[in-house]
Amino acid sequence: MAGRRPAHLARRGAVYFVRFRIPADLTGKLGMVEFRRSLQTSSSEAARIECLRVTAWFRATMENLRKMPDATAADFEEAARAYFSRLAADLDRPRRFSPDPHEFDVSVEHALHLHDERQTELADQLKRNEFDGHVYGHALALAELLGFKFDALTDQQQTQISRLAVRTEIAQSELFRHQITSPLEPFETSDPLFHGPIKAADPEPRLPRPPAPSNATRLKTAAEDFIGRKRAKRITESQIAELERALGWLQEVAGPEASLLDVTREMLRRFRDDISRRNVTLRGRKVTFRHSLTDETEHQIQFQTAIRYWGSVQAFFAWAFSEGLSPVDPAAGLIMDRPKSITKRSPKSFDADELKRLFRTPLFAGHKSPKRVTEPGTCLARDGRWWFAVLAMHSGARAGELCQLLPSDFIFDDAVPHWKLQLEDGDNKQTKTLKTKTSIRDVPIHPRLLELGLREFVTASAKRRPGKRIIHEFRLGTQGRTSAGATRFWTDYLEKHGLHSPGRATHVWRHTVTDCLRENAVPDEDIGAFLGHSSGSQTSKYGSAQSLKRKRETILQLHYGFDVVAALGGPYDPMRNRA
Fewer CB atoms inside 10 Å of the end CB: C or N, the chain? Predict the structure, then answer.
């Protein structure tokens, strides 16, 4: 059968299947953005006809799901299973086609099918006053035709112009159907706004017809371009990672083939609200955006984090609009409301008693084996997990900074022994990421670390794994989450031994070091320089960083109120502590 293949029909090998994008207002309920099913036939003729029938079923099913107050993916799957079971049985029976030679060609049927589908979409947009990118393009052209600048109109006027653009498109679509089905009859649209006969043969209908964009930019392409431009400006890798995550989630919601014009204001409004529902306990895990949402407020990301993600999305669409990639900025003016009362989730620092309790747990006091560090035993090997905690409590370094340390970062024979937090590896290649520019710093080595065997540990790591991370026990997460493995381990470990509280995992060490130094009267300026924080003052932008000698004076003020070396099992013993 000749003609263009229906829009929702595709073929894999010799077998045809159908695929549909789930409407944006149902993706949240159903937890999917696309639906696919095999038609179980290799016949082109049968597949084309069945595709039109399946399309009618799909549209009707979507309407039914909209009417259901608590529609779920299970409801949709049950309806699909029943329909396609009947379809499979039907395809097993011989088909009898009408011998009428004047029966519509499938290509004509398909054109009418697309017409009906678009009519339904337009009617729905009129009800909700939410318009897609194609309508916005028509509205812009229509406003210009009437002598106005669309952006200079009020919100109410823009809505009225957009509604007029929709009604115009509906009337043109009705004319199209009329010209196919009854071209010899006089035409009159169903919309009273355009009443008045137009001859079917008239080559130039008087209805305004703004051109629709024919080559809309794909969302994925625009996102890659935007990220590339940001990377060229050398913003920090943590900011790049946040931007990639936010735009990656948006592409999941909009669909892999979505264009900028497919992203509606309503879609972004729901996406904005969903960002704040991200589950912090799933950080670093490979789950879809929809499956990472939770209604349990204690597990949702902090407002400050959510608003950074949303700010990235708004910046992206503002850029796309300014570059002429989109005729409208659908994210403009969509503000993320700040909750009236935000619970502070900064982790409570470890006090001296909690540190002593921690050092009596298996990892420090004796564990079963190097692979079973959470179970009591006699093994006292000081591996990367042991050194992660000890380094953190003597430096306040971030988890991602510690997990990327290489043997070449340590300088033991300097006047002030120290280790470097830097982007480059031993071959001077940029292989690491840090949160901010001030995170690049030199950290003096506390004398206790040398007594506990840090030099021996680093030297042994360099021999066993040349050029590799010394704390290799924790995996580095994706999209810049270098702390993912460490966060997962320490969250579970602290929970198991009764030392966990909201927000406590790895960042607790940074707070613990800060509080300890403050208790010992160290000025905030020195604490900030030691931890890699920017003071934010204009003076801090001049001159060089604080000297290692002054930082060493700061680190020597880390007094926890008990003998740390003794609590950790005493000075290094190669017979007992070699990892």
Answer: N
